[in-house]
Design a protein that fits this description.
With 700 residues, the protein is α/β, with parallel strands linked by helices. It is built from 22 helices and 27 strands. The strands form 5 sheets. Strands 18, 19, 20, 21, 22, 23, 24, 25, 26 and 27 form a 10-stranded mixed beta sheet that branches. A 5-stranded parallel beta sheet has the order 2-1-3-4-5, with helices on both faces. It has a 5-stranded antiparallel beta sheet with strand order 7-6-10-9-8, covered by helices on one side.
């Protein structure tokens, strides 16, 4: 899916007012979508933006825009030759407006005053675009795969042909040679019946009719074939469903069958090729074919299957008890128990049982999740009750089982294998004798339980002080006195490791806990700064707050009370807020800045400069610092555009009496560019990583 925090939405916004554009960007960012916005001022700039090498993901165009009318914007987007969704931004919608925007080519409308509808339609169109791009990539890969398959078929010594409605549409050289034809032109369009001896034509015609109705082909079909000279020879045919140039067809493989060959022996050899020699079960290759068939059936016909992987627990200890020379005997005994428990798989039950790895076994059975779970329970219970007598010793053991419910949602072999393997390993790592079966239908229930567990954990952390800080130094380039650190919120983990706020902030926001968490962070920062206030190394701390705190009318009084309680000057506390959040809460930000300014507490405007008109904010209030968006640090030493932008921001900020911080510094070469740009402070993992201690030497 496209809409993740690791992928940025490259967005063109067409509006008359920059405030409207900033509001749209902020709405998307506040919902967790990274945005790279462009706001063209003219149709020429719009054309340039659409023509740039890096593809644009979406155009949001105000339907009432005057300097760039929607109709002209739509014509330009539709005519750019690229797959770019166009959304009409509206204050309200009527049938006439909806009909008009759709006629002009807009994929959807986004209502400015309906945030949920706005976000849903933007995400829907972005996901659809991502799906179309993925489909085009897959189609290209498919064409390349088909090309390679064609090359392999042409070079194969197996006689292979493709049959559509009983007629030849493709045949390789080995097939032509078998029947004595010089080129495919001699056989193109010829009926497959023409290559069958008269005695077998009637029966073979019936087979073709069954295949045309979608019935499964036989794994092996014996008949007498006829070559181009009329000579007859015994042959064996194998059928499989295929596709050629977009058409569903049959792939047919013809093989000579020597006159003296024993058909029963041939069948037995074919059966042995499918079996594992030690256990008599299906071997891995054959089992995977059955698994692929089940996955296809689930995808096309909405059938359901259960897939289970199982391994004996404490296998190495068991081997020490029985000896390596008895391994095959033990594997055979395990296979016998599995057959007994499953009730003659591979016969009338539809269950497939195979040896999947060195000491691992696999089961494939039709049925829903309840049936799959019941089958796994039977297998789990069967092992501890059985004593395996092998050689001179005996042993009993349990098994670990991992499984997947194969349905339309999981109709792909790779994730089925991966999830089952992960489940089996997880069961084994938590003591064994356990089952972990993944059920796609239980995802929603599990997600709800996971979220509630997080909510309970966060409330407990607030009540029992289970949050903590990590600190990253913010280093002055001009040697300013005192230590400055940014605080990073962490949650104590059960295993002694801390959990980053990215794991829980979204859940906290959805359940109204952000304001309480912000207050905890502010209170802890004041405690830490107060404890260091009279030491040789006092500190100032940056604390990130959220929109919940900006709109909290009681926050200034809360901070004032804590400062008075600890006897601390407010200059030790800096509250950090993203530019996008401030833009949509400007009045609240002004109120908070004014109230905190009485105590010398300053505001830090982070992720500054990536908006459409960042400096417009600074005409309404004055923060103490601006922290540059980390995007400007990407390859800074070589990126002259980023260098110019950094220099522009720092110079404008300095003229307004605002300090600047370069966040996300990546390398030593970037430091040289930052020195010349006039940045006041630098920060990043390259310089010093965040940690639990305030021990950076700012004087070195």
């Amino acid at each position: 899916m496209a809409t993740t925090k690791d992928v940025a939405l490259r967005l063109i916004i067409v509006t008359d007012q920059v405030n409207d554009a900033e509001a749209m960007v902020s709405r998307l960012r506040n919902s967790g979508i990274a945005v790279r916005p462009i706001r063209p001022e003219s149709l020429d700039e719009l054309a340039q933006a659409l023509a740039q090498q890096q593809p644009v993901d979406m155009v949001l165009a105000d339907y009432t825009c005057e300097h760039m009318p929607f109709e002209q914007v739509a014509k330009m987007v539709m005519g750019c030759g690229k797959d770019v969704p166009l959304l009409a931004v509206l204050d309200g919608v009527t049938d006439d407006i909806l009909e008009n925007v759709q006629a002009l080519g807009a994929q959807a409308v986004a209502l400015r005053e309906r945030p949920q509808q706005f976000l849903k339609n933007v995400m829907t169109e972005w996901n659809d675009l991502d799906a179309r791009r993925s489909q085009r990539r897959l189609e290209a890969q498919m064409r390349e795969t088909q090309r390679r398959c064609d090359m392999l078929i042409d070079s194969s010594r197996e006689p292979i042909a493709y049959i559509h409605e009983g007629m030849h549409i493709r045949a390789n050289q080995a097939y032509l040679e078998m029947f004595g034809f010089e080129s495919f032109d001699d056989i193109e369009g010829m009926s497959l019946l023409d290559l069958v001896a008269p005695a077998n034509v009637g029966e073979f015609r019936d087979l073709l009719k069954k295949l045309s109705k979608g019935e499964a082909p036989p794994p092996r079909y014996e008949l007498t074939a006829v070559d181009s000279e009329g000579g007859e020879f015994p042959a064996v045919m194998e059928f499989s469903a295929a596709e050629y140039q977009g058409e569903a067809c049959l792939q047919v493989i013809f093989r000579h069958q020597a006159v003296e060959a024993d058909p029963e022996l041939e069948r037995e050899l074919a059966r042995l090729r499918e079996r594992d020699q030690a256990t008599g079960l299906l071997n891995r290759q054959t089992f995977l074919k059955h698994l692929e068939d089940a996955v296809v059936d689930a995808g096309k016909n909405q059938a359901q299957y259960g897939f289970l992987l199982l391994e004996p627990d404490s296998w190495q200890r068991t081997l020490q008890g029985i000896g390596l020379d008895s391994v095959d005997q033990l594997l055979k005994a395990i296979a016998d128990l599995l057959r007994e428990t499953l009730g003659n798989p591979d016969e009338d039950t539809g269950i497939r049982l195979g040896r999947f790895s060195d000491h691992g076994f696999a089961v494939l059975a039709p049925g829903d999740h309840a049936q799959t779970q019941a089958l796994a329970d039977r297998l789990l219970a069967a092992f501890p009750a059985r004593v395996f007598t092998v050689g001179d010793g005996s042993s009993t053991f349990s098994v670990s089982i991992g499984g997947v419910q194969i349905s339309e949602k999981t109709a792909s072999v790779s994730p089925v294998l991966s999830r089952a393997s992960h489940g089996m390993q997880s069961a084994a790592s938590t003591g064994g004798n356990r089952i972990e079966v993944f059920d796609p239908g239980a995802i929603d229930r599990a997600e709800a339980e996971r979220i509630q567990a997080w909510v309970n954990r966060l409330r407990d952390a607030l009540e029992n002080d289970h949050f903590l800080f990590h600190y990253q130094p913010v280093i002055p380039l001009l040697g300013a006195p005192g230590g400055l650190y940014e605080t990073f919120l962490r949650l104590e983990g059960d295993n002694g490791e801390s959990v980053t706020d990215m794991s829980f902030l979204q859940i906290a926001e959805e359940h109204g806990l952000l304001g309480d968490i912000d207050r905890w962070a502010i209170g802890r920062a004041i405690e830490v700064a107060a404890a260091r206030a009279n030491s040789p190394k006092p500190v100032r701390l940056l604390v990130r707050i959220t929109q919940a705190s900006l709109t909290d009318e009681g926050l200034p009084g809360f901070i004032e009370g804590l400062l008075a309680q600890h006897g601390l000057d407010g200059s030790s506390l800096l509250l950090q807020v993203p530019e996008s959040t401030v833009f949509t809460n400007l009045a609240d930000t002004q109120t908070l800045t004014s109230a905190l300014g009485k105590h010398r507490c300053q505001l830090v405007l982070e992720r500054f400069g990536a908006g459409l008109d960042s400096f417009q904010l600074l005409t309404h209030f004055t923060p103490g610092f601006v922290k540059l968006d980390p995007i400007f640090m990407e390859d800074l030493a070589k990126n002259t555009t980023n260098q110019q932008k950094v220099q522009e921001i720092t110079h404008k900020a300095r003229d307004l009496g605002i300090m600047s911080i370069a966040d996300g510094v990546q390398d030593a070469a970037s430091m040289t560019a930052l020195f010349s740009s006039g940045v006041d402070y630098v920060q990043g993992d390259f310089l010093a990583q965040a940690g639990p201690d305030l021990n950076y030497d700012f004087e070195s």
